Every structure is written in C-alpha cells, then in structure tokens.
C-alpha cells in the first residue's frame, strides 16, 4: 500500500494537500524503484492521471492521484496490461461499476482477448509514446537504434521494457555517458541472453505444451539470476556496494 504525506481531509491548505512531482516520485519509489519523472509525465499524457497545475504550470498531485498511479504501475508490472485497458478499468471503478481485472494472455469465451499481442509479457508501446515517456526527440531515438540499444518490433512498436531502457540511457547521459559508450553493455547483454537461450531452447522445442510453457518461467528465472550476477560483478570490479 502506498503511503502518502498526510494532509487535510478537505479543509487543509493546498500546500498540505498537494504534492510536487518530485514528492510523488519519492512516494512511488518505495514500491516501484524504477519509476521516473518521465514515466509519470507519460502516464499523464495518456490520460491515466490529471494532476492540477499551478499558475506557473507546475504539476500538483493529490493523494488520490498518487494512489491511482500506484494502481496503474501495479497493473503494468503484475498483469502486463496495456494502458488503454488500465484506463478503462480504473474509469469504470471510479464510476462505481463492477470492473473485474482484465486478463492478458488468456482466452475469454473461447476468443483471445483483443489486447493480447504475442503473450503475457508482450505489452507494447508506440514510437510516439516512447518518445514522450523518455522525453527525447526522434533524432535521439534513431541514434540509439543505430547503436542497437533499442529496436522496434516488426510492426513498428516497441516492447514495454523499451521505456526502462530509454529512461536509463537518459539518466546515464546526465553523467556524460553517451549512447555510443553503451554498445559494450548491449553486446554483453546479448551474450548473456544467448546463454539463457541455449539453456531453455530444448524446453521450447518440446512437444509437451506444459513443458513449452515452463520455458517462459525458466527464462524469467535465469534472466533474474544473470542480472543479479552482472550487477554483483560490476560492483566488485568498481569496489563499491550499491544499496
């Protein structure tokens, strides 16, 4: 459950009831450590939240806005739901309608759910949405693509993880690390992914559907382990310990 700073229940001042985007980021990061200001702005642009604006144009969020943001991020993380589906679900709840949580990757009444793309983890984002989420221009994105840091899917969209990659590239850029410097990291990631693929390939080719389904879970498990190992090796090489 998200914890928000206490304010009045209707009679307090705006200063105690409303939060800046920086405060919202701090509140959300307890549960969603990878959330960024760009992500919050993107969700606003998609109509998931409608923060108030000061005369100077600064965003001000209520506790209800923060709670709604938490629901959005949770449904993305835990259920891989497209933003359109999340928005419709939350709007229905606010109208007091019965709104069971949609399911991605399964069938409803014998027919595939329309929002499903290629599987339960195949949430996608359009190019314009990615540019807005990362707060970058098209030229920058093309440069990143030339270095292999991001790549569109065959239909021109991007997988949901592209937002995380783009946000991290932006953050590293603030320290003077340019996209071209990150090619070595992309090459290392590709090698690690290749190793995981070698392990799970026999499961994916198996005739038993349950065994093939198990390959997805095994891939996620191995991916998490390789990420942890990579982080530990980098920390050891630098002689630091990250929180």
Task: Tell me briefly what this model is.
The chain has 243 residues and is mainly α.
Provide an overview of this structure.
The protein has 243 residues and is mainly α. The chain contains 10 helices and 6 strands. It has a two-stranded antiparallel sheet with strand order 1-2. Strands 3-4 form a two-stranded antiparallel ribbon. A hairpin with a 5-residue loop joins strand 1 and strand 2. The chain is globular, with a radius of gyration of 20 Å. The two termini are 22 Å apart. About 12% of the residues have low confidence.
- How large is the radius of gyration? 20 Å
Instruction: Enumerate the spans where pLDDT stays under 50 for 5 or more consecutive residues.
Output: 6-15, 104-122
Overall pLDDT score: 78
Order of helices and strands: HHHEEHHEEEHHEHHH
Helix content, binned percent: 40-55%
Name the structural class: mainly alpha
Q: How many strands?
A: 6
Major sheet characteristics: 2 strands, antiparallel
Descriptive keywords:
10 helices; 243 residues; 6 strands; mainly alpha; two-stranded antiparallel sheet; two-stranded antiparallel ribbon
Strand and helix layout:
Layout (H helix, E strand, L loop, with lengths): L13 H4 L3 H9 L7 H9 L6 E2 L5 E2 L2 H17 L3 H12 L12 E2 L2 E2 L11 E2 L1 H8 L3 H9 L11 E2 L1 H13 L9 H22 L4 H30 L5
Helix pairs in contact: 3-6, 4-5, 9-10
